[in-house]
Amino acid sequence: MAAAGRKPLVKDFNHFITCYLCRGYLIKPTTVTECLHTFCKSCIVQHFEDSNDCPRCGIQVHETNPLEMLRLDNTLEEIIFKLVPGLREKEQQELDFWKKNQPRENGQAENARRQRIGLPDVRGDYDDGGGDGDDGGDEDCHRSDPQIAICLDCLRNTGQSGETSVTDLMKRFIRCSSRVTVGTIKKFLSLKLKLPSSYELDVLCNGEIMGRDHTLEFIYMTRWRLHGENTYPMVLEYRPRIDFG
């Protein structure tokens, strides 16, 4: 009777509020939409660098881009902060520490946070990928997302009849949301280069054609960094689509 009426302890909920990967309390709880298992954001992002499967149940989350199947659970985060005394303050102190002690050459207040989830610092003078009046860009789109810098290089030696229609960008260095997809990059290139709507482009990383649904974050983690490329920004190449038919 006494046991049934006792006040619940935090440890009674540990099974629901701890991360399967790091065994600590869930920080930025992030749920895999395919199986609804939840992990720390930094833990599950790092796991998906090497695997497309859920680390808990083994289900394949996505064939090529598991990061697209992640969703932050802000409600669970608030519940954990209420259950665990001092956790919110500890996390805030850590964030304040990184903000205070990170390099400030270009005023990038989020660089330390970006490093925790596996993205590099954003530095330098880049085209922000926004609109310039006639290219249809949306300057506010994804502005709150983690940013990534890329270099867009033109591949000329394709041997295609339409290759002369594809030229170098005036600004090859672009800064945009890490969640931008290859499909959006293709639209950006078509607008900047004033290509006809029927003109098809391929976007490549390390010589491999990227799928239009791949995000820049996914490409950086699985095609650029994991192949031993330590230079930054990440280089993507574009060329006229080659029809092998």
UniProtKB/TrEMBL annotation:
Biased composition (Acidic residues): 127-138
A single MF term (Gene Ontology): zinc ion binding
Protein task: Component of Polycomb group (PcG) multiprotein complexes; the complex class is required to maintain the transcriptionally repressive state of some genes.
SUPFAM superfamilies: RING/U-box (SSF57850)
Pfam families per UniProt: RAWUL, zf-C3HC4_2
Protein name: Polycomb group RING finger protein 5-B-like isoform X3
Keywords in alphabetical order: Metal-binding, Nucleus, Repressor, Transcription, Transcription regulation, Zinc, Zinc-finger
Gene3D superfamilies: Phosphatidylinositol 3-kinase Catalytic Subunit, Chain A, domain 1, Zinc/RING finger domain, C3HC4 (zinc finger)
